[in-house]
Amino acid sequence: MRLVFLGPPGAGKGTQARELAQEWGVPQISTGDMLREAVAAGTPLGRQARGYMDRGALVPDDVIIALIAERFAQPDAKRGFVLDGFPRTIPQAEALGRLLEELGQHLDRVILFDVSEPELLRRLTGRRSCPTCQATYHVTAAPPRREGVCDRCGSALTQREDDREATVRTRLGVFTEQTAPLLDYYRRRGLLTRVGGEGSVESIRANIRRAAGTVPA
Ligand code: AMP
Asked: 0.85 cut: is pTM over it?
């Protein structure tokens, strides 16, 4: 199982990748999560990436490609993977192709999450999370019992720096300009399958299982 989840920020890639990777017994490889961990730990990678992330820009390709090459070298990635948030540019897609070729592997499918722009804006600007236990909420769609407070552990909820409206608009523009060309790139290779990304989390998940050629466990 070697899949890429492709789609604009807020399309639900992370939510679905987390669950499905676990169901399929492969790692979820999220460059966004890896970068946020590096920022939180204050590593040289985190210090380098932070400025780009906070303003909604992409971290340079060479940095991301090195990060992915290192991740693929870990034993768990031999079983397969769900890539979430990578590749995001044509050079990254080409680097992924070369990396897989060196490993004697290939992608099984690229799943495109299709969500309208107003819905993306609503989801991203309303997203809140718990810095302590990582639970996620939405101010209207999945609010905590007490406003601003985590149901599970009582910590004060926070908003991702890059989920503020001006930055969200930048990120959506970056997707259109730099990531959308990947749709054609993978369509021409016969790998792209579109999945509607609106509706219940469970129904979207069922569509992804179908697109990936797996049946529910
Ligand atoms: P995400 O959580 O996937 O929305 O990623 C958050 C931020 O991390 C993005 O806005 C970028 O600044 C950076 N990032 C994550 N993945 C990549 C990537 N493949 N290429 C460049 N930048 C990335």
From this structure: yes
Cα 153 to middle of ligand 1, angstroms: 28
Specify the CATH class of 2-27+74-115+165-212 in words. alpha beta
Q: What would the pLDDT profile of 21-42 be if each residue is shown by its tens digit?
A: 999 999 999 999 999 999 999 9
C-beta 59 within 6 A of ligand 1: yes
Calculate mean pLDDT across residues 15-22: 94
Listed by start position, the domains of the chain span 2-27+74-115+165-212
CB 168 within 8 A of CB 141: no
Are the C-beta atoms of residues 194 and 112 closer than 8 Å to each other? yes
> Within 10 A of 62 (CB to CB), how many other CB atoms are there?
11
Q: Kindly state if the Cβ of 35 falls inside 6 Å of ligand 1.
A: yes
Q: Which residues are catalytic?
A: 13, 88, 127, 160, 171
Probe residue for ligand 1, chosen from 30, 53, 129 as the CB with the greatest number of ligand atoms within 8 Å = 53
